[in-house]
Design brief:
There is one protein chain. The protein is 40% helix and 18% strand. By secondary structure, it is of the alpha/beta class. The strands form 5 sheets. A 7-stranded mixed beta sheet has the order 8-7-6-9-12-17-18, sandwiched between helices. The longest helix is centred in the middle third of the chain and has 40 residues. Keywords: Amino-acid biosynthesis, Isomerase, Methionine biosynthesis.
């Protein structure tokens, strides 16, 4: 993707052996990049949400292992690095997927060969993420084309999205936003309703910024407006991302996604979830019961940052002093509310058999060996 016309990824390596990232906590008011030089800095970047989004968290963790091995490439150091990084965010399964992949690639090697292999494996993981997201974009583009055909090729296709599942949440392209970028590039008249996505406002700050950089028409709305728009025929389809998807198609996404899915079902609006296969947790069935839901610092809810007319960026408190807060980061949308899942291998029903039809090699793992 591009920032001010320049091709940019969300994470990259520097000649000095550091790892470059976009500090997303400064967006949209400033575009700030950082260099990560240690394992601890990589872990902090994930924990503090300088990087966020399941695929990008996984990529950052992989590079965090590389930074750790620059200091100590022993077996014990590798395990300590993976344990520290694993503990940073509990919900996104890509984190564990990336770290497990690094372990498998590095364990058999002698310490002297691990560092070079770690850099190569992390880079390959990033390139794979880009290819996966481009494929998701192509499959999702078909759904947007179909929506335009249903409208008789008149007016615009209105898509509602929640949180940020664009290139800032991945290495490049994004998941839920990738079809929208391709639609814009193809000349389809697409327009995006962008939920503000409280409490961190990733929609208003990140998704709106991304779409603006790519020239995609969009409108920022309060989180509770989506149902109203659906009632009045102003939403043709919803596309959201997911941080963890169960083997039967339940999806964990930013808090508030479940309510959008309920409104979509009530109004007959297709509700799609875009996901790369590393986001699927094939060991879980019941997402509501089994997916761990992160509870984050209450200050994300009590405090809001913004830019004054003077240009100064400040943080202010919006709740009474002393009022307790509960800051759940995610909720789970049951598969029954999901119209279909958009993966790199195609679009499928949000069911066990739907997923296994695209990923038949997983049948043995899930215990479903039928045809």
């Amino acid at each position: 993707m591009k920032v001010h016309g320049k091709a940019t990824r969300s994470i990259w390596t520097e000649p000095d052996g550091s790892v470059g990232i976009i500090d997303q906590t400064h967006l949209p008011h400033a575009f700030v990049t950082l260099r990560l030089t240690t394992l601890e800095e990589a872990a902090h970047a994930i924990r503090a949400m300088q990087v966020r989004g399941a695929p990008l968290i996984g990529a950052t963790a992989a590079y965090g292992v590389c930074l750790a091995l620059r200091v100590d490439a022993s077996q014990g150091a590798l395990e300590r690095a993976c344990a520290l990084l694993q503990a940073t965010r509990p919900t996104a399964v890509n984190l564990k997927w990336a770290l497990d992949g690094m372990r498998r690639a590095l364990h058999p090697l002698p310490p002297a060969e691990r560092l070079a292999a770690a850099w190569a494996h992390a880079a390959a993981l990033c390139d794979e993420d880009v290819a996966i997201n481009q494929a998701i974009g192509r499959h999702g583009l078909t759904l947007i084309r179909e929506a335009w055909e249903r409208k008789g090729r008149e007016g615009r296709v209105n898509v509602l999205t929640h949180c940020n599942a664009g290139w800032l949440a991945t290495v490049d392209w994004g998941t839920a936003l990738a079809p929208l970028y391709l639609a814009r590039d193809e000349g389809l008249p697409v327009h995006v309703w962008v939920d503000e996505t409280r409490p961190r406002n990733q929609g208003a700050s990140l998704t709106a910024w991304e779409l603006g950089q790519h020239g995609v028409p969009h409108t920022v709305i309060a989180d509770n407006v989506g149902g109203h728009l659906m009632q009045h025929g102003e939403v043709d389809l919803c596309i959201v991302g997911t941080d963890r998807t169960t083997a039967r198609g339940d999806v964990a996404n930013k808090i508030g996604t479940y309510l959008k899915a309920l409104a979509a079902r009530d109004n007959g609006v297709p509700f799609y979830v875009a996901l790369p296969s590393p986001t699927i947790d094939w060991t879980l069935e019941d997402g509501v019961r089994d997916i761990p839901i992160e509870q984050r610092d209450g200050r994300e809810l009590t405090d809001v940052s913004g830019r004054l007319a003077s240009g100064e960026v400040v943080t202010v408190r919006v709740t009474p002093e002393g009022s307790p807060v509960a800051n759940y980061g995610f909720d789970v949308t049951p598969a029954r509310l999901v119209t279909a899942l958009i993966t790199e291998r195609g679009v499928c029903p949000a069911t066990s058999e739907g997923l296994l039809s695209l990923f038949p090699e997983r049948r043995e793992l899930t215990g479903r060996t039928g045809t």
